[in-house]
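HOLO CASE FILE
Compound: pyridoxal-5'-phosphate
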Amino acid sequence: MPPYAFFQKQFMPLHEAKIGILTHALHYGTACFEGIRGNWDNEKERFCLFRLSDHYRRLLDGCRLLKINLPYSAEEMCQLTLELLAKSNYREDVYIRPLAYKSSETIGVRLHDLEDALLIVVTTLPPYLGNSTIRCCTSSWRRIDDTMIPARGKISGAYVNSALAKTEAHENGCDEAILLSQDGHVAEGSAENIFIVSKEKLITPASPDNVLMGITRDSVMTVARNEMGLASIERRLDRSELYLAEECFLTGTGARIAPIVEIDHRSIGTGGIGPITSTLQRSLLEIELGRNPHYSSWYTFLP
Ligand SMILES: Cc1ncc(COP(=O)(O)O)c(C=O)c1O
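Model generated. Tokens follow.
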């Protein structure tokens, strides 16, 4: 079976799903998207789609920000996703990418008087930041501010900011960039939230520092509290606090929990994966596979 896409209100083989070269979103970034994991459980021979409806609720928030009107509710998009995944016949971990976009084929930068559309594709995803530990650099690019592009949505055009930072980090020999906010506080990675461990607590930048409200970020805070009795504090975080942290890690749907062992050529903590990070990694992996009944509201199984 070829991979399928949901495109123009129907399911079709991925290679048949094509957009016109004048599509508004292609030129102006007028789209928002999600990244959702479908975790294949080899033992149970089923997928666990992790926090599926939360992802679609965030997509609909992005649509509101961009004045995109979709003819689907979050529940309907969950159903479309399940149908698409069932058709696509994968038996390995998958990554689901819905994109809501301004689909008119026309020139002229704006949000109004344009048609809107939804597409969904399913693909495989190699480990996003590798499987082990990562080295980061503080970016010379600053995280977009909410006064420029809303930071609370996964808005396609805003990812130029992430791409600039990621490539700069790569060219400087690092795995990932850490972006600061306009006024110099820690915001997040190019496609991940950031946490430090300090004095038996997790600390992560708060929403006003223009962080995307990550679903993995929320899962980590919940799991840390429930499974380890660890409190999380959402507050302003300074760059030098990263350097002095006992442990530091990135979180994201793609990256899962990525332990940071070096930032700006300084080793973090002991220079290896810290004990809290590795416990969280183990717990979250188990939970993402749908194996912990305490989190059943986060799971959508297929079949
Ligand atoms: C800019 C940005 N920050 C943070 C995240 C992490 O969000 P989530 O955990 O919902 O994938 C992502 C990935 O979606 C992202 O693109």
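CASE NOTES: The first strand starts at residue 4 and ends at 7. The mean pLDDT is 96.
CLOSED: yes
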